[in-house]
Amino acid sequence: MSIAKSTLANLAGAFTPLIITLVSVPHYLRLIGEERYGTLAVIWSLLAYFVFFDFGLGRALAQRMARLGKAGDRERSDLLWTALLVSLPLSSSGGLILWISAEWILVHVVGMTPTHCKEALSAIPWLAPTLPLLICGSVLQGALHARERFVASNVASVVGNGFSQLVPLLIAMLGYRDLGSLVPAALSGRLITVTLLGAMCWRYVPLRVRANFQRSHVKPLLSYGGWSSAASMVAPFLVTVDRMVIGAMGGAASIAYYTIPYNVAAPLTLISHSLTVALFPRLAATSSANARCISADATRNLVAVMTPIVIGALAVAHPFLALWVGQEFAASANGVSELILLGVWTNSTVVAHFSRLQATGRVKTIFFTYLIEIPIYFLFLWVGLRTWGVLGAAAAWSLRVLLDAVLLLSVGGAFWQTVKDTFPAMALVVTSWGLVTFVDFYSPLRWVGLLILMALSMALNFPLIKRVSALAFSR
Fold first, then answer.
1. Looking at the whole model, is its pTM more than 0.90?
2. Is residue 210 classed exposed, middle or buried when 0-12, 13-18 and 19+ CB atoms within 10 A define those classes?
3. What is the pLDDT of residues 373-417, one digit of tens each?
């Protein structure tokens, strides 16, 4: 399967749960309220952060198995079993730490009120034992990615995510609206995902019945996974810390005013993510020089696709939010989605080279880059929230993405080439953001200007867009 087709499969798997979310969130807000929804978002962020206790084994397995090339079924099965068995004690330790530290995090880091904290803590006993299961799912998914079985991987994820979102909604409709009921209902979908991933690995890796632990695989997995796990520990922190800081400084309602418009814009990063997942096994299996060429070409193609999409999203973000969750809510969150979209576009310029650094074993470089970003991001968040509230948090997020792109492209030796390739598109996106931010919504200048910019972005990138479309839909 070509990279374009694999990306398309990943996109389908990523956007199907998003569609379910778009339909379900207004019902969640109506049934459980903004503050409880914000508390639920914090719980999921907490679980996402503790998934770093996979110690990078999912990605390490994908890289190691991709490099095996035409190895036999037995060797791949032994490698997968080794990764699974190594992950169990590590993930169990993570579940125990989550259980012990949850109250301190919720009270002293997030700053929850006693009422909301008590309700959130009632859900923690469900999260802790579920963590090892989720991490095993990450390892299983890594094996499927190494084998480029992206359709199978995404089928498992879509079915499980659908249950995770719809079953709690059904429970809430039946009158069980406390977090102690909603969280375990959502976790049932995660169990389904892991079960399906295991079945897919049984067929496509294949995973043999006998669990054969090979000590020779442990050192290569942990050698790569060690720095990958360190980066994996920091990466979720960079993604989720904004909600924790917002909760501490503005309360649970402020988290909702940030999270919901964020969820309108940020899912467009799924396009970039889908490409990197498809690229990774190819980049791991080739030479460093060839990987650099593949990444540069992928960046040009991705930016060509993302530029008109982001311009269109800038145009409709606020009216969509108003239609989706109401005018009053949209007014309180005005401008958040638009600022996040700037970061979404910036992210598309670096993700292919980020995947290259991972695939060629330079995860140590990624880890130290993240360490540089953390104090700077905290400063951005503190200043932004103190000065502009949730709008400042959105600006801080996009500035952090820009810093991430500059650092990773620089260490990857691709900064100036990427700037040269993407500067015209960047100018169009920034101009579009200026129009939607500073020109009145009903002004003809706003809409005529956006149409012109959209047309220019399509004309500028038409050859690349045509090429990507031909690759994705060809037989």
1. no
2. exposed
3. 989 998 998 898 888 888 998 999 999 999 999 999 999 999 999
Q: Which tokens is 24 given? A: 């379900």
Selection from 92, 14, 97, 102 nearest residue 54 by Cα: 92
Give the residue carrying structure tokens 């679980």: 47
Asked whether residue 215 is domain-assigned, the answer is: yes
Same domain (yes/no): 338, 392: yes
Give the residue numbers spanning the domain of 384: 251-475
Residue finishing a domain among 191, 225, 259: 225
Q: Is residue 469 in a domain?
A: yes
Q: Which two tokens stand for residue 61?
A: 């397995």
Lowest mean pLDDT among 91-105, 133-147, 369-383: 91-105
Residue 377 lies in a domain: yes
List the structure tokens of 375.
């104090």
Mean pLDDT calculated for residue range 359-382:
88
Contact 48, 178 (CB under 8 A): no
Residue pair 363/228 in contact by the 8 Å Cβ criterion: yes
Instruction: Give every CB contact of residue 55 below 8 A, 6+ residues apart in sequence.
Output: 87, 90, 222, 225, 226, 228, 229, 232
For 26-65, write each residue's pLDDT tens digit.
Answer: 888 888 877 777 777 777 777 776 766 777 788 888 888 8
Neighbours of 409 (CB within 10 A): 20
Do 216 and 277 lie in a common domain? no
Residue pair 59/228 in contact by the 8 Å Cβ criterion: yes
- In angstroms, how far is CA 221 from the centroid of its own chain? 23
Tokens of 142: 């890594």
Note whether residue 23 is domain-resident. Answer: yes
101/99 Cα distance (integer angstroms): 6
